[in-house]
């Protein structure tokens, strides 16, 4: 019995409407001292409110299962993307109810406004959808779904708690990967910013012979097939396949810098996952190396169907470290693991020329044996500062420093080009598109 009373008081909440009615009752009793003609009206009003309160309690507590709720969540969440979740709610009462729902989302989101209001008719059900955007990889713990129910009288609320504790892993941006995958399969990558690359000449990978049509390159006419068929026939070539594409991710302290909630490492991880998937769709072999002051993970290049899952599982566990990159170790690892000429996409960050100068000797050595593409980040915050008008001496000083850092980034691009090293200077938001564009460009120009 004590347990039932405890549960009753624990799940019973008084509403503002009840407090307003009680306040009105007090006012009536107060006025009755000055206006005797009110008579029994204040007492009648008070007992009416009390009767309605008891009726409200009986309506809500007449059944132990008045409503049902359940959270609908995917098996895993995609880092940096808007993930859709839902709450299924069903009214089992024989009357209409007003409902408020609290979903206990993980503390990592730092959100306290996950409150949904809706109304349900008797035996009606709804699915309420909402979006969550995680900004860190790892495990996110969800709690219970709490539902607060009001009758049309609205004097009290009854709370229902549906224990649905679950832990969802947050993986690198597989939603972004799927989007690019669908575009690549249907040859519609240009719709999301991927440029159409003009091919210079053709590769040595023969595909088929077909009838010549106006606009075909006359240099690809197959004269033997033309003689056999009596009509002009032309050879069709495709991009060379089974080329090795390695994403090398720097996990040092330079990649800890955050932009829009995500660290540079997370941007690099998301771009690496998408690039690896596009390379596999192009029938190339994708591989992965992570490095900081010591070697992280190494996934040898392959084009098996399970390769993208292997890369995804490795990227899920990677974290930023707080020392500088051991470039000598990176060079020796590349020489040991990469057995043939490959495209090496090195995701890192340089904030000054001195930072480049420390790594340049090793980058030059890598570029002797492989096609090296260095991808680093444009500091968008400094770019905004350099574009703002200066109104005082302090603003002039800040703007000058910001412009100097931006200029150093451009000097880094020129310095890398001087030594025959490809580079991409990109904002974090456009990193994926810029990287895929350069990969397709290098492939079309047969530089791999």
Describe this structure in words.
- InterPro entries: DUF58, vWFA_dom_sf.
- Keywords: Membrane, Transmembrane, Transmembrane helix.
- This is DUF58 domain-containing protein.
- This protein is of the alpha/beta class and 448 residues long.
- 39% of the residues lie in helices and 27% in strands.
- The strands form six sheets. A six-stranded mixed sheet has the order 18-17-14-19-20-21, with helices on both faces. Strands 1-10-9-5-6 form a five-stranded antiparallel sheet.
- A hairpin with a 3-residue loop joins strand 17 and strand 18.
- Helix 6 packs parallel to helix 12.
- It is elongated.
- The model has no long low-confidence stretch (mean pLDDT 85).
List the helices and strands and how they pair.
Elements: H1 2-10, E1 12-14, H2 16-34, H3 41-61, E2 67-72, E3 77-78, E4 83-91, E5 97-103, E6 115-120, E7 125-132, E8 138-142, E9 145-150, E10 156-162, E11 166-171, H4 174-185, E12 205-211, H5 223-229, E13 233-238, E14 244-250, E15 258-259, E16 262-263, H6 264-281, E17 285-291, E18 295-302, H7 307-317, H8 327-337, E19 343-347, H9 353-369, E20 371-377, H10 380-387, H11 393-418, E21 422-426, H12 431-444
Parallel strand pairs: 3-11, 14-17, 14-19, 19-20, 20-21
Antiparallel strand pairs: 1-10, 2-4, 4-7, 5-6, 5-9, 8-11, 9-10, 12-13, 15-16, 17-18
Helix pairs in contact: 2-3, 4-6, 6-7, 6-12, 8-9, 10-11
Keywords: Membrane, Transmembrane, Transmembrane helix
Domain DUF58: 208-360
Transmembrane segments: 12-38, 44-61
Brief summary:
This protein has twelve helices and 21 strands. The radius of gyration is 33 Å and the shape is elongated. It is an alpha/beta fold and 448 residues long.
